[in-house]
Design brief:
Layout (H helix, E strand, L loop, with lengths): L33 H31 L5 E7 L6 H14 L5 E8 L16 E5 L7 H10 L3 E6 L7 H13 L3 E6 L2 E2 L5 H4 L4 E4 L2 H9 L7 E3 L29 E7 L6 H12 L6 E7 L5 H17 L6 E5 L4 H10 L2 E4 L9 E2 L3 H7 L5 E4 L12 E3 L2 H13 L5 H14 L1 H14 L3
Parallel strand pairs: 1-2, 1-4, 2-3, 4-5, 5-7, 7-8, 9-10, 9-12, 10-11, 12-14, 14-15
Antiparallel strand pairs: 6-13
Amino acid sequence: MKHKHHHCGHSHCGNPHCCKPHCGCSPCCKVFCICAIFGAIESIWGSVAMAIFQLRYKMKKAKHNPSPYRKVAFIGNYKTSCGISTYNEDLTDSFMGGAMPCEFKFFAEYAEDSESEHLNSDPSWLVRCWSRKEHPKLNLIEKILEYEPDIVHISHEYGIFPQAYYFTSLVSVLKGYGIKVLTTFHSVYEHADKAVTENAPDIIIVHTIEAKLCLMRKGIWDGRIKVIPHGTPTTTPHGKDIELISKDWNTWHSEHTLFHAGFMFEYKGHGRMMHVVAKLKEKYPDIHYVIQGSESERHMAEHDEVYHKLIRLSKDLGIEHNVTINRGFVETRVLMSHIRTVKCCVLPYVTHPQHDVRATSGIARLILTTETPLVVSDVHLFDDIKDIADVAHNDDELYDLVDKVFASGGLTDLQKKKRLDFLRTTSWGKIGEKTLSLYKSTTL
């Protein structure tokens, strides 16, 4: 029970064995009670104990690893049906393609149908040891601590860490050992609730200036945010002497073909594009619109719903025989076969509050490595390529831009130059160098 001071009305600490007032309102209140003293000692000891704990971890690590190079542990998915997996593969391939200024190990998610720690196709520097469904990720943490890294780099996507604390608690445990945690947030949303995840790591990597500004609007200190663009595959690793990949044989035997790749979600704009195709059919009866709809097990119900809607819509619009819908995730080589044989690629994403994301598009970058024209919508996903691709702000502009491509011979010399300049600055070799430089410069 707290007791009131007779002269000022303030309380004692509440300890029945303590009778010293300590509010500081009068000379008698200047005397600190024994409880306050012990509380201060306890607080100081907690900080000292944590510092000693972290120092012991670092001394043990230094003893086991006398190498002058920093050790980096990378957490993400690898060789699975996911665009983030493709990103991780391309980034780590860029590391292994040259001299490494650090030691590196990849701690990957289990493959879809196996909990094997190592598949036959996996490189020697990779171990599989966790699932997005599990919490806590004790096996992952154990293997990370056995490796004794200086830095942990997490490749984050909200589908991979479906509940906020799956990510934040993992980061907290690793930081408790004195390990610096870097995180690449591939998707940055305006939603304020996402800040609880974004605030967790020591250093945040995003792909665009717009994403950085979005985080700053949510109160994240700009000194923690580093901008490293999304890499682009090029004919040479570091963007030197690069060329655009030429068109392939026109197996469609038509100059009025469109290709649209992306997950089978409503906001990807397949339905919107079908309405434009129906209008274009009046001018180009042989028009053909090819959809490659990627899918994931977690969203199969939504994929099925979108697919059946598109089937019905194609019939209603009278373009059933002008549309091909392929379902499922396919390799880059299959995507490139489509990109190089069609007249034009389209990414007509729909603006939606739930999907208004500051990010970058992997498929757009793949298209930009070729001589195939690209038309995109004005969503934030394409902020970094709006000076390179043709941008449609509405359905009428989408029609006009596709019509213009159909009537043209392909990319202009200026468009080719812009693409080549973009590839030189965003080649995976350059992005790998930027990432390794960040590892080296991070204060431990």
